[in-house]
Structure formats: C-alpha cells, structure tokens
Amino acid sequence: MYGNDFAPPEDGPGGGLLGEVEAAEAALREAAARARRGGPAPDEDLAAYFADVIDADQKIEPRDWMPEAYRKTLIRQIAQHAHSEIIGMQPEGNWISRAPSLKRKAILLAKVQDEAGHGLYLYAAAETLGVSRDELVELLIDGRQKYSSIFNYPTLTWADVGAIGWLVDGAAIVNQVPLCRCSYGPYARAMIRVCKEESFHQRQGYEILHTLAHGTPEQKAMAQDAVDRWWYPSLAMFGPPDGDSTHSAQSMAWKIKRFSNDELRQRFVDMCVQQAEILGLTIPDPDLRWNEQRQAHDYSQPDYDELMQVIKGNGPCNRQRMEHRRRAHADGAWVREAAAAYAAKRNSREKVAA
Ligand code: FAQ
C-alpha cells in the first residue's frame, strides 16, 4: 500500500514526493554554503542583487533587502497557510472523542497536535518578515486574512477522517513539496519539516480508507461516500484556474510558487487515479480518463463559483469555524497572560543575576 508521498513500488526508494523533499533539503544546504561566500558589493544596487539571488536559485534571508511587494506576498501566503493549519484542526478534532478504537484515537490526537505544530513553524516563518504572530492572529479573527477553503466542509462520518488524510493532506503535500524550493529561506525550511510530517498524515488517512474499503459493504459505502464529498473540494484547494489567479505570475517570477495552480491540480489528479484503484474506490468523475496525447488525465474541474463563495465566508461551516476560533482565542487569554508574566519574571531574575 502506498500514498501520495510514496512512489509506486517500481519507482524504488527515494522516489516520489518524499524524494523531492530530500532533494530540496540538499539544495537548501548547498545554497546556504554558496550564500556564505558573499553578499552584495558595497556599491551594488540592492534590487539587482535581489534579482541575482533569485536567478541563481539561492535563498533570500530575513536580513536581506527585498522588495516590499515580495515581503507582503510572503506574509499573505505564509499567514494564510498558518491559519489553515490551525483552523484545520477543527474538522478532525470533531472525531477525536469518537474514533473507533484507542489506537485510532491516539493516532488522530497526534495528527491534530502536529497541525498545531505546523501552524507554529509557519507563524514563526512569517515573524521573520517583521510581523508579529499576535497581529496575524488578530487579522484572522477579524476576518481580514483567509484560511484554506477546504476546512469549511463538515466531517460527517469516521470515513471523512480517512478522506481528509488521503485527499486533503495529499493535496497539501503536492502543493507544499515545491514550496520546499521557495526562494524565501525560512518558508522553504519550514516546508521541509512540514512535508515530512505531512507524509505520515497522508498515510494514516490512506490506511483508514483502505481498511474501510476492504471491510463490510457498509464500511466500503461509507468510504466511497466520503471520497464523493471530499474529491471536488480537494481539487479546489489548489486555488482558482490559472487564468483567474491574481498572484501566480508574480509569485512564480519570484520563485515563491514553482508551479501554477492548474499544474499542481493536474499532478494531484494523476497521482490519485492509481491510488484509488488500489483502494478499490471510485473517483466521482465520469469524465476522468487518460489522455494519451497529453500523457495526463482529463478530468472535470471543481465548481469555482462554489470556491469563491466559500472563500467569501459562505461555505457550509465558515461561521462555525470562525466562532470556534474566536472562542478558543478568548478562552486562552489567561494562558497568554500567564506565559507573558512568567517570561517577564524570568527576564528580570536573569538581569539581577547578571
Ligand atoms: N482557499 O492568486 P491566487 C493543509 C485565494 S494546509 C482560500 O491563485 P495564490 C494542511 C488567494 O489567497 C492548506 N483562499 O493565490 C492540513 C487569493 O486571495 P487574495 C493550506 C484561496 O496565493 C491538512 C485569491 O484566492 N495550504 O491543508 C484558495 O497565488 C489537514 C486568488 O488566488 C496553503 O496555504 C483556497 N483554496 O495561490 C491541515 C499552501 N485558493 O489574498 C489540517 C500555501 C486561492 O488575493 C488538516 N499557499 N485563494 O484575496 C499556496 O500555495 C497558495 O496561496 C494557493 C493560492 C495555491 C493556496
């Protein structure tokens, strides 16, 4: 059995998406070694130096000069990504108390906890751009920053936890593996760690669905129903089609994004087809077929009007997700205050001791 992060067995170890993560990690180390050999010359134009670093596939680091629009784009994308990880804890958190066994409960607890960790890596990466985590959380809570559309759909059955792992984490990995090569160092490094952890998540979802699909007819029907409901929202996660994507061209020129939304969506579809066969489940698209000429699958597009409605706040669970986040933030105020008071006390003790 394998999942999105695995190459099919014939591709051998080190292949597939995890192989790409390892290659990106090696490239990061090489870029860091090269970068140490010199910064801009004293009389060199900073914008020209920035362009050279991007051209040379090296990394922009927090203290480097960068265009204001590059900084703003990164803050927008990284913050949206961090918020998605945090809000993304809710749909699965819904099943922690109802997981079918102690083992499943322990695995799901660990997974949901991992998502909190991913949020923290990402908020920390965003902070290197000169914005505080508190500000970003306020922007989310006030509805001025977005989070992924996918987390506005409900988890109706246990099989939804499997479908989230297989399809949502699967789509997240396909999107995030190229981000391991993002031109901004802190984001690229965070993505390497996130992708490695995300590969476990994808496998646990795939394994849940595999178990259900090979269980009783009722269990198989439940797995199929979950895939039917999560397929198109997962395709929509990759964003609007290229023609309607406002940021893609500039983000690709800056090497923040390495592939367009449609390129990644296609890659995801091509991967899922074979995996669905192994699961014994059907992808709910009657027009899905191999196109010999394109060497890729033709498939039906998700409903992009629905995506826009969900992004605007009109999805099935938007209100519930935001209410829960606001309540959790308010309930956690005493923890933040206590942590700040403790840090202040420790700082003053250290000063006295010094
Ligand atoms: N949902 O011009 P583009 C996960 C917005 S993590 C909401 O194409 P861009 C882990 C976009 O922001 C999932 N909004 O934008 C997990 C822009 O809005 P603006 C999150 C969307 O940035 C699993 C406008 O539409 N992953 O799942 C969406 O170049 C299980 C125009 O779009 C990331 O955030 C959407 N689906 O490309 C956790 C990955 N799509 O600001 C728990 C990093 C587009 O102009 C459980 N982000 N928009 O008003 C990216 O790769 C990119 O930001 C894209 C969008 C590809 C999402």
Question: Would you spell out the secondary-structure blueprint of this structure?
Answer:
Layout: H1 16-35, H2 46-55, H3 68-87, H4 89-93, H5 102-127, H6 133-141, H7 158-176, H8 185-213, H9 217-236, H10 248-253, H11 261-279, E1 289-291, E2 296-298, H12 304-314, H13 318-331, H14 333-353
Antiparallel strand pairs: 1-2
The protein binds Phenylacetyl coenzyme A (FAQ).
Phenylacetyl coenzyme A binds at residues 76-77, 80-81, 84-85, 88, 115, 146, 148-149, 164, 168-169, 172, 175, 237-240, 245-248, 251, 257, 261, 311.
Note down, in words, how this protein is organized:
The protein has a two-stranded antiparallel sheet. It has helices at residues 16-35, 46-55, 68-87, 89-93, 102-127, 133-141, 158-176, 185-213, 217-236, 248-253, 261-279, 304-314, 318-331, 333-353, and strands at 289-291, 296-298. 65% of the residues lie in helices and 2% in strands. The model is unreliable at 9-14 (pLDDT under 50). α1 packs antiparallel against α8 (185-213), α3 packs antiparallel against α5 (102-127) and α7 (158-176) packs antiparallel against α8 (185-213). With 354 residues, it is an all-alpha fold. It is built from 14 helices and two strands, in the order αααααααααααββααα. The chain is globular. The site of Phenylacetyl coenzyme A (FAQ) has 28 residues, from α3, α7 and α10. It is an enzyme of class 1 (oxidoreductase). GO terms for molecular function: phenylacetyl-CoA 1,2-epoxidase activity. It comes from Micromonospora terminaliae. Pfam families: PaaA_PaaC (PF05138). Keywords: Oxidoreductase.
